[in-house]
Amino acid sequence: MLSVTEALEEVSRHAFRLPTKECPAIEAMGMALAEDLISPVESPAFDKAMMDGFAVIAADTDCGNVNLEIVEEITAGNTANEVLESGQAARIMTGAPLPPGADSVIMVEDTQIDSENVDRVQILQRVKHGSHVLKQGGLLTKGQVVIPAGSVIRPVEVGILADLAGAKALVHRRPTVAIISTGDELVGPSIEPGPGQIRNTNGPMLEAMAIECGAEVKQLGIVRDNRDELSEAIKEGLQADVLLISGGMSVGVKDFGPVLLEEQGVEKVFHKVHLKPGKPLWFGKQGGSDNPTLVFGLPGNPASSLVCFHLFVRTALNELMGRSHVSPFVSGFLLTRDFVNPGNRPVFFPAYASRKDGGGATIAPLNWKGSADLATLSQANALACFEANTQYEAGQFVSAVMV
Protein backbone atom coordinates (compact mmCIF):
# COMPACT_ATOMS: atom_id res chain seq x y z
CA MET A 1 0.00 0.00 0.00
CA LEU A 2 1.43 3.35 -1.02
CA SER A 3 1.85 6.35 1.24
CA VAL A 4 0.11 9.59 0.26
CA THR A 5 3.44 11.02 -0.90
CA GLU A 6 4.22 7.98 -3.03
CA ALA A 7 0.74 8.00 -4.56
CA LEU A 8 1.04 11.70 -5.41
CA GLU A 9 4.37 11.04 -7.11
CA GLU A 10 2.79 8.27 -9.21
CA VAL A 11 -0.09 10.50 -10.27
CA SER A 12 2.27 13.31 -11.28
CA ARG A 13 4.53 10.89 -13.15
CA HIS A 14 1.68 9.69 -15.36
CA ALA A 15 -0.01 13.07 -15.93
CA PHE A 16 1.42 14.53 -19.16
CA ARG A 17 0.75 18.11 -20.10
CA LEU A 18 -2.02 18.55 -22.62
CA PRO A 19 -1.49 20.15 -26.06
CA THR A 20 -1.37 23.92 -26.31
CA LYS A 21 -3.81 26.32 -27.94
CA GLU A 22 -4.02 30.06 -28.45
CA CYS A 23 -7.18 31.73 -27.26
CA PRO A 24 -8.46 35.13 -26.11
CA ALA A 25 -7.05 35.99 -22.71
CA ILE A 26 -10.50 36.35 -21.17
CA GLU A 27 -11.31 32.75 -22.16
CA ALA A 28 -8.05 31.57 -20.62
CA MET A 29 -9.06 32.50 -17.08
CA GLY A 30 -7.94 29.73 -14.73
CA MET A 31 -5.71 28.13 -17.37
CA ALA A 32 -1.91 28.12 -17.33
CA LEU A 33 0.45 29.87 -19.71
CA ALA A 34 2.31 27.36 -21.86
CA GLU A 35 5.28 29.67 -22.47
CA ASP A 36 6.89 32.67 -20.81
CA LEU A 37 5.23 35.99 -21.62
CA ILE A 38 8.13 38.20 -22.67
CA SER A 39 7.72 41.94 -22.95
CA PRO A 40 8.19 43.09 -26.57
CA VAL A 41 8.59 46.72 -25.46
CA GLU A 42 9.76 48.95 -22.68
CA SER A 43 7.11 50.09 -20.25
CA PRO A 44 6.43 52.91 -20.00
CA ALA A 45 7.58 53.87 -23.48
CA PHE A 46 8.40 57.39 -22.27
CA ASP A 47 9.21 59.29 -19.08
CA LYS A 48 5.76 59.66 -17.53
CA ALA A 49 4.28 62.09 -15.01
CA MET A 50 2.88 60.32 -11.95
CA MET A 51 1.07 63.35 -10.51
CA ASP A 52 -0.96 66.30 -11.72
CA GLY A 53 1.27 69.36 -11.44
CA PHE A 54 4.07 71.03 -13.35
CA ALA A 55 7.00 69.54 -15.25
CA VAL A 56 10.15 71.44 -14.31
CA ILE A 57 13.92 71.32 -14.33
CA ALA A 58 14.80 70.42 -10.73
CA ALA A 59 17.94 72.61 -10.70
CA ASP A 60 15.71 75.68 -11.23
CA THR A 61 14.27 75.13 -7.74
CA ASP A 62 17.54 74.77 -5.82
CA CYS A 63 16.93 78.09 -4.10
CA GLY A 64 13.45 77.02 -2.97
CA ASN A 65 10.73 79.52 -3.80
CA VAL A 66 10.95 80.36 -7.51
CA ASN A 67 8.67 81.85 -10.18
CA LEU A 68 8.57 80.04 -13.55
CA GLU A 69 6.96 80.77 -16.92
CA ILE A 70 4.17 78.34 -17.94
CA VAL A 71 4.84 77.54 -21.59
CA GLU A 72 2.23 74.84 -22.35
CA GLU A 73 -0.19 72.25 -20.99
CA ILE A 74 0.31 68.50 -21.59
CA THR A 75 -2.56 66.06 -21.02
CA ALA A 76 -2.49 62.25 -21.06
CA GLY A 77 -2.45 60.99 -24.63
CA ASN A 78 -0.65 64.08 -25.96
CA THR A 79 2.99 65.10 -26.25
CA ALA A 80 4.88 68.33 -25.69
CA ASN A 81 5.23 70.84 -28.50
CA GLU A 82 8.61 72.20 -27.45
CA VAL A 83 11.70 71.59 -25.35
CA LEU A 84 11.47 72.90 -21.79
CA GLU A 85 14.22 75.40 -20.97
CA SER A 86 15.55 76.79 -17.70
CA GLY A 87 13.07 79.17 -16.13
CA GLN A 88 10.09 77.41 -17.67
CA ALA A 89 7.42 74.95 -16.50
CA ALA A 90 4.76 72.94 -18.28
CA ARG A 91 1.39 72.16 -16.74
CA ILE A 92 1.12 68.35 -16.87
CA MET A 93 -1.45 65.70 -16.03
CA THR A 94 -0.95 62.24 -14.57
CA GLY A 95 0.11 59.77 -17.27
CA ALA A 96 1.29 62.39 -19.74
CA PRO A 97 4.82 62.24 -21.26
CA LEU A 98 7.37 64.60 -19.75
CA PRO A 99 8.43 67.34 -22.19
CA PRO A 100 12.03 67.14 -23.45
CA GLY A 101 14.31 69.04 -21.08
CA ALA A 102 12.20 68.46 -17.97
CA ASP A 103 13.41 65.99 -15.35
CA SER A 104 10.87 66.29 -12.50
CA VAL A 105 7.27 66.99 -11.61
CA ILE A 106 6.03 69.06 -8.69
CA MET A 107 2.53 68.40 -7.39
CA VAL A 108 -0.02 71.13 -8.03
CA GLU A 109 -0.57 71.36 -4.24
CA ASP A 110 3.02 72.65 -3.87
CA THR A 111 2.55 75.46 -6.36
CA GLN A 112 0.64 78.71 -6.66
CA ILE A 113 -0.43 80.55 -9.81
CA ASP A 114 0.71 84.14 -9.91
CA SER A 115 -2.44 86.20 -9.27
CA GLU A 116 -1.17 89.04 -11.46
CA ASN A 117 0.08 86.80 -14.30
CA VAL A 118 -1.67 83.46 -14.94
CA ASP A 119 1.15 82.47 -17.28
CA ARG A 120 3.52 82.12 -14.35
CA VAL A 121 3.61 79.67 -11.46
CA GLN A 122 5.19 80.00 -8.04
CA ILE A 123 7.12 76.86 -7.00
CA LEU A 124 6.82 76.82 -3.22
CA GLN A 125 9.54 74.29 -2.37
CA ARG A 126 12.69 72.72 -3.69
CA VAL A 127 12.08 69.86 -6.13
CA LYS A 128 14.17 66.71 -5.92
CA HIS A 129 15.52 65.50 -9.27
CA GLY A 130 13.26 62.79 -10.68
CA SER A 131 10.33 63.50 -8.36
CA HIS A 132 6.99 62.04 -9.45
CA VAL A 133 8.41 60.72 -12.72
CA LEU A 134 8.31 57.11 -13.89
CA LYS A 135 11.28 56.70 -16.19
CA GLN A 136 11.07 55.02 -19.57
CA GLY A 137 11.45 51.26 -19.03
CA GLY A 138 10.98 51.72 -15.29
CA LEU A 139 8.32 49.01 -15.13
CA LEU A 140 9.44 46.59 -17.83
CA THR A 141 12.47 46.25 -20.05
CA LYS A 142 12.26 44.79 -23.54
CA GLY A 143 12.85 41.02 -23.36
CA GLN A 144 11.92 40.77 -19.68
CA VAL A 145 9.89 37.72 -18.56
CA VAL A 146 6.68 39.23 -17.24
CA ILE A 147 4.64 36.09 -16.54
CA PRO A 148 6.50 32.76 -16.39
CA ALA A 149 5.15 29.62 -18.03
CA GLY A 150 2.92 27.63 -15.71
CA SER A 151 1.34 30.70 -14.13
CA VAL A 152 -2.44 30.55 -13.74
CA ILE A 153 -4.23 33.34 -15.57
CA ARG A 154 -6.20 35.60 -13.25
CA PRO A 155 -7.81 39.00 -13.97
CA VAL A 156 -4.49 40.83 -13.49
CA GLU A 157 -2.80 38.52 -16.02
CA VAL A 158 -5.64 39.21 -18.46
CA GLY A 159 -4.80 42.91 -18.16
CA ILE A 160 -1.10 42.27 -18.78
CA LEU A 161 -1.88 40.07 -21.79
CA ALA A 162 -4.07 42.86 -23.20
CA ASP A 163 -1.14 45.26 -22.87
CA LEU A 164 1.65 43.05 -24.19
CA ALA A 165 0.16 40.19 -26.21
CA GLY A 166 -2.86 41.48 -28.06
CA ALA A 167 -5.18 40.05 -25.40
CA LYS A 168 -4.26 36.49 -26.46
CA ALA A 169 -2.67 33.66 -24.52
CA LEU A 170 -0.94 30.39 -25.40
CA VAL A 171 -2.21 27.88 -22.85
CA HIS A 172 -2.54 24.17 -22.27
CA ARG A 173 -6.12 23.24 -23.15
CA ARG A 174 -8.62 22.40 -20.49
CA PRO A 175 -8.80 18.68 -19.59
CA THR A 176 -12.01 16.78 -20.21
CA VAL A 177 -13.35 14.80 -17.27
CA ALA A 178 -15.96 12.03 -17.51
CA ILE A 179 -17.80 10.95 -14.36
CA ILE A 180 -19.52 7.63 -13.70
CA SER A 181 -21.51 7.06 -10.51
CA THR A 182 -22.06 3.35 -9.81
CA GLY A 183 -24.48 1.54 -7.55
CA ASP A 184 -27.91 -0.10 -7.56
CA GLU A 185 -28.77 2.00 -4.52
CA LEU A 186 -28.35 5.38 -6.24
CA VAL A 187 -31.13 7.61 -7.54
CA GLY A 188 -31.00 11.08 -9.07
CA PRO A 189 -31.37 14.29 -7.02
CA SER A 190 -35.00 14.81 -8.09
CA ILE A 191 -36.15 11.29 -7.19
CA GLU A 192 -37.52 10.35 -3.80
CA PRO A 193 -35.35 7.45 -2.52
CA GLY A 194 -37.15 4.16 -1.92
CA PRO A 195 -36.23 1.53 0.66
CA GLY A 196 -32.47 1.00 0.66
CA GLN A 197 -31.85 3.80 -1.85
CA ILE A 198 -29.87 7.04 -1.52
CA ARG A 199 -29.49 10.11 -3.70
CA ASN A 200 -26.36 10.39 -5.82
CA THR A 201 -24.29 13.09 -4.12
CA ASN A 202 -20.86 12.08 -5.42
CA GLY A 203 -21.63 12.72 -9.08
CA PRO A 204 -22.66 16.37 -8.68
CA MET A 205 -19.95 17.01 -6.06
CA LEU A 206 -17.20 15.60 -8.30
CA GLU A 207 -18.51 17.60 -11.25
CA ALA A 208 -18.44 20.81 -9.23
CA MET A 209 -14.89 20.19 -8.01
CA ALA A 210 -13.66 19.38 -11.52
CA ILE A 211 -15.25 22.55 -12.93
CA GLU A 212 -13.69 24.53 -10.09
CA CYS A 213 -10.30 23.14 -11.19
CA GLY A 214 -10.90 24.38 -14.74
CA ALA A 215 -11.95 21.13 -16.42
CA GLU A 216 -14.73 20.48 -18.92
CA VAL A 217 -17.03 17.82 -17.49
CA LYS A 218 -19.26 15.15 -19.02
CA GLN A 219 -21.62 13.36 -16.66
CA LEU A 220 -22.23 9.76 -17.73
CA GLY A 221 -24.89 9.36 -15.07
CA ILE A 222 -25.76 6.56 -12.67
CA VAL A 223 -24.66 3.11 -13.80
CA ARG A 224 -26.16 0.05 -12.14
CA ASP A 225 -24.03 -2.77 -10.76
CA ASN A 226 -24.20 -4.59 -14.07
CA ARG A 227 -21.11 -5.72 -16.00
CA ASP A 228 -22.41 -4.85 -19.47
CA GLU A 229 -23.81 -1.48 -18.48
CA LEU A 230 -20.66 -0.49 -16.63
CA SER A 231 -18.43 -1.75 -19.45
CA GLU A 232 -20.23 0.48 -21.96
CA ALA A 233 -19.99 3.49 -19.66
CA ILE A 234 -16.25 2.92 -19.11
CA LYS A 235 -15.72 2.64 -22.86
CA GLU A 236 -17.34 6.05 -23.34
CA GLY A 237 -15.55 7.56 -20.35
CA LEU A 238 -12.14 6.53 -21.68
CA GLN A 239 -12.60 9.08 -24.49
CA ALA A 240 -11.94 11.82 -21.91
CA ASP A 241 -8.58 12.92 -20.51
CA VAL A 242 -9.65 11.84 -17.02
CA LEU A 243 -12.25 9.27 -16.02
CA LEU A 244 -13.66 9.34 -12.49
CA ILE A 245 -15.58 6.26 -11.33
CA SER A 246 -17.37 6.66 -8.03
CA GLY A 247 -17.87 3.33 -6.25
CA GLY A 248 -17.57 -0.24 -7.52
CA MET A 249 -13.79 -0.37 -7.18
CA SER A 250 -13.30 -2.48 -4.06
CA VAL A 251 -13.58 -6.28 -3.59
CA GLY A 252 -17.34 -6.72 -3.15
CA VAL A 253 -19.31 -9.19 -5.26
CA LYS A 254 -20.56 -6.36 -7.48
CA ASP A 255 -17.36 -4.32 -7.62
CA PHE A 256 -16.70 -4.95 -11.31
CA GLY A 257 -14.64 -1.79 -11.94
CA PRO A 258 -11.05 -3.09 -11.76
CA VAL A 259 -11.75 -6.15 -13.93
CA LEU A 260 -13.63 -4.17 -16.59
CA LEU A 261 -10.92 -1.51 -16.72
CA GLU A 262 -8.29 -4.18 -17.25
CA GLU A 263 -10.39 -5.70 -20.06
CA GLN A 264 -10.40 -2.31 -21.81
CA GLY A 265 -6.66 -1.89 -21.64
CA VAL A 266 -6.36 0.29 -18.56
CA GLU A 267 -3.11 -0.38 -16.73
CA LYS A 268 -3.35 -0.32 -12.94
CA VAL A 269 -0.73 1.93 -11.37
CA PHE A 270 -1.80 1.46 -7.76
CA HIS A 271 -4.77 0.35 -5.67
CA LYS A 272 -5.17 1.50 -2.05
CA VAL A 273 -3.40 4.35 -0.31
CA HIS A 274 -2.38 4.58 3.32
CA LEU A 275 -4.81 7.32 4.44
CA LYS A 276 -8.21 7.84 6.03
CA PRO A 277 -10.71 8.41 4.56
CA GLY A 278 -9.95 7.25 1.01
CA LYS A 279 -7.95 4.05 1.41
CA PRO A 280 -9.65 2.13 -1.50
CA LEU A 281 -8.51 4.65 -4.16
CA TRP A 282 -7.67 3.01 -7.52
CA PHE A 283 -5.51 4.75 -10.14
CA GLY A 284 -4.51 3.67 -13.63
CA LYS A 285 -4.02 4.86 -17.18
CA GLN A 286 -4.91 3.82 -20.71
CA GLY A 287 -2.60 4.70 -23.59
CA GLY A 288 0.97 5.92 -23.98
CA SER A 289 2.63 9.24 -23.25
CA ASP A 290 1.00 11.16 -26.11
CA ASN A 291 -2.55 11.39 -24.84
CA PRO A 292 -3.30 8.85 -22.10
CA THR A 293 -6.54 8.72 -20.17
CA LEU A 294 -6.05 8.83 -16.42
CA VAL A 295 -8.54 6.76 -14.46
CA PHE A 296 -9.43 7.27 -10.80
CA GLY A 297 -11.60 4.73 -9.04
CA LEU A 298 -12.91 6.78 -6.14
CA PRO A 299 -14.53 5.37 -2.99
CA GLY A 300 -18.30 5.63 -2.97
CA ASN A 301 -18.25 7.33 0.41
CA PRO A 302 -18.69 11.11 -0.15
CA ALA A 303 -16.01 12.22 2.31
CA SER A 304 -13.54 9.70 0.89
CA SER A 305 -14.25 10.93 -2.65
CA LEU A 306 -13.73 14.53 -1.57
CA VAL A 307 -10.42 13.79 0.13
CA CYS A 308 -9.13 11.74 -2.81
CA PHE A 309 -10.21 14.38 -5.30
CA HIS A 310 -8.43 17.22 -3.53
CA LEU A 311 -5.26 15.19 -2.98
CA PHE A 312 -4.93 13.20 -6.20
CA VAL A 313 -7.39 14.23 -8.92
CA ARG A 314 -6.67 17.93 -8.45
CA THR A 315 -2.94 17.17 -8.65
CA ALA A 316 -3.50 15.36 -11.96
CA LEU A 317 -5.61 18.19 -13.41
CA ASN A 318 -3.00 20.77 -12.43
CA GLU A 319 -0.29 18.72 -14.15
CA LEU A 320 -2.39 18.25 -17.30
CA MET A 321 -3.02 21.99 -17.51
CA GLY A 322 0.66 22.82 -17.07
CA ARG A 323 0.19 24.75 -13.86
CA SER A 324 3.38 25.34 -11.91
CA HIS A 325 3.68 22.47 -9.46
CA VAL A 326 2.12 23.35 -6.15
CA SER A 327 1.90 20.87 -3.31
CA PRO A 328 -1.65 20.21 -2.11
CA PHE A 329 -0.36 20.72 1.42
CA VAL A 330 -0.20 24.07 3.21
CA SER A 331 1.88 24.13 6.39
CA GLY A 332 2.02 26.38 9.42
CA PHE A 333 -1.50 26.14 10.88
CA LEU A 334 -1.72 26.53 14.64
CA LEU A 335 -4.07 23.93 16.12
CA THR A 336 -6.78 25.49 18.33
CA ARG A 337 -7.72 22.36 20.31
CA ASP A 338 -6.38 18.94 21.22
CA PHE A 339 -6.82 16.12 18.72
CA VAL A 340 -6.06 12.42 18.92
CA ASN A 341 -5.63 10.08 15.95
CA PRO A 342 -5.48 6.60 17.47
CA GLY A 343 -5.61 4.78 14.12
CA ASN A 344 -2.77 3.37 12.06
CA ARG A 345 -3.38 5.62 9.04
CA PRO A 346 -2.90 9.38 8.54
CA VAL A 347 -6.24 11.20 8.82
CA PHE A 348 -7.45 14.13 6.73
CA PHE A 349 -10.01 15.68 9.04
CA PRO A 350 -12.55 18.41 8.16
CA ALA A 351 -11.49 21.68 9.75
CA TYR A 352 -11.87 25.42 9.53
CA ALA A 353 -8.75 27.50 8.90
CA SER A 354 -8.58 31.21 9.63
CA ARG A 355 -6.20 34.07 10.34
CA LYS A 356 -5.46 35.26 13.85
CA ASP A 357 -5.58 38.95 14.70
CA GLY A 358 -2.08 40.25 14.15
CA GLY A 359 -1.12 37.50 11.71
CA GLY A 360 -0.66 33.77 11.72
CA ALA A 361 -3.06 31.03 10.68
CA THR A 362 -5.10 28.80 12.96
CA ILE A 363 -7.06 25.63 12.27
CA ALA A 364 -9.94 24.15 14.23
CA PRO A 365 -11.07 20.52 13.69
CA LEU A 366 -14.85 20.39 13.32
CA ASN A 367 -17.25 18.15 15.24
CA TRP A 368 -17.46 15.74 12.33
CA LYS A 369 -19.64 12.65 12.75
CA GLY A 370 -17.93 10.52 10.13
CA SER A 371 -17.74 9.84 6.43
CA ALA A 372 -21.45 10.30 5.65
CA ASP A 373 -21.65 13.68 7.45
CA LEU A 374 -21.75 16.09 4.49
CA ALA A 375 -23.52 18.78 6.52
CA THR A 376 -20.51 19.29 8.79
CA LEU A 377 -18.17 18.82 5.85
CA SER A 378 -19.83 21.83 4.20
CA GLN A 379 -18.54 24.00 7.07
CA ALA A 380 -14.93 23.00 6.36
CA ASN A 381 -12.50 24.98 4.22
CA ALA A 382 -9.59 22.66 4.96
CA LEU A 383 -8.64 19.08 5.75
CA ALA A 384 -6.27 19.04 8.69
CA CYS A 385 -3.53 16.41 8.37
CA PHE A 386 -2.94 14.23 11.43
CA GLU A 387 -0.34 11.47 11.46
CA ALA A 388 -1.19 7.94 12.59
CA ASN A 389 -1.07 6.99 16.27
CA THR A 390 -0.42 10.57 17.32
CA GLN A 391 -1.80 12.84 20.01
CA TYR A 392 -1.83 16.55 19.20
CA GLU A 393 -2.13 19.42 21.67
CA ALA A 394 -3.56 22.85 21.06
CA GLY A 395 -0.75 25.16 19.96
CA GLN A 396 1.02 22.61 17.79
CA PHE A 397 1.56 23.35 14.11
CA VAL A 398 -0.06 21.09 11.51
CA SER A 399 -0.45 20.99 7.73
CA ALA A 400 -3.72 21.04 5.81
CA VAL A 401 -5.21 20.57 2.36
CA MET A 402 -7.41 23.51 1.41
CA VAL A 403 -10.85 22.58 0.02
From TrEMBL:
<dbReference type="InterPro" id="IPR005111">
    <property type="entry name" value="MoeA_C_domain_IV"/>
</dbReference>
<dbReference type="Pfam" id="PF03454">
    <property type="entry name" value="MoeA_C"/>
</dbReference>
<keyword id="KW-0500">Molybdenum</keyword>
<keyword id="KW-0479">Metal-binding</keyword>
<dbReference type="InterPro" id="IPR036688">
    <property type="entry name" value="MoeA_C_domain_IV_sf"/>
</dbReference>
<keyword id="KW-0501">Molybdenum cofactor biosynthesis</keyword>
<dbReference type="InterPro" id="IPR001453">
    <property type="entry name" value="MoaB/Mog_dom"/>
</dbReference>
<keyword id="KW-0808">Transferase</keyword>
<dbReference type="GO" id="GO:0006777">
    <property type="term" value="P:Mo-molybdopterin cofactor biosynthetic process"/>
</dbReference>
<dbReference type="GO" id="GO:0061599">
    <property type="term" value="F:molybdopterin molybdotransferase activity"/>
</dbReference>
<comment type="similarity">
    <text>Belongs to the MoeA family.</text>
</comment>
<keyword id="KW-0460">Magnesium</keyword>
<feature type="domain" description="MoaB/Mog">
    <location>
        <begin position="178"/>
        <end position="319"/>
    </location>
</feature>
<dbReference type="InterPro" id="IPR036135">
    <property type="entry name" value="MoeA_linker/N_sf"/>
</dbReference>
<dbReference type="InterPro" id="IPR038987">
    <property type="entry name" value="MoeA-like"/>
</dbReference>
<dbReference type="Pfam" id="PF00994">
    <property type="entry name" value="MoCF_biosynth"/>
</dbReference>
<comment type="function">
    <text>Catalyzes the insertion of molybdate into adenylated molybdopterin with the concomitant release of AMP.</text>
</comment>
<dbReference type="InterPro" id="IPR005110">
    <property type="entry name" value="MoeA_linker/N"/>
</dbReference>
<dbReference type="InterPro" id="IPR036425">
    <property type="entry name" value="MoaB/Mog-like_dom_sf"/>
</dbReference>
<protein>
    <recommendedName>
        <fullName>Molybdopterin molybdenumtransferase</fullName>
        <ecNumber>2.10.1.1</ecNumber>
    </recommendedName>
</protein>
<dbReference type="Pfam" id="PF03453">
    <property type="entry name" value="MoeA_N"/>
</dbReference>
<dbReference type="InterPro" id="IPR008284">
    <property type="entry name" value="MoCF_biosynth_CS"/>
</dbReference>
<dbReference type="GO" id="GO:0046872">
    <property type="term" value="F:metal ion binding"/>
</dbReference>
<dbReference type="GO" id="GO:0005829">
    <property type="term" value="C:cytosol"/>
</dbReference>
<comment type="pathway">
    <text>Cofactor biosynthesis; molybdopterin biosynthesis.</text>
</comment>
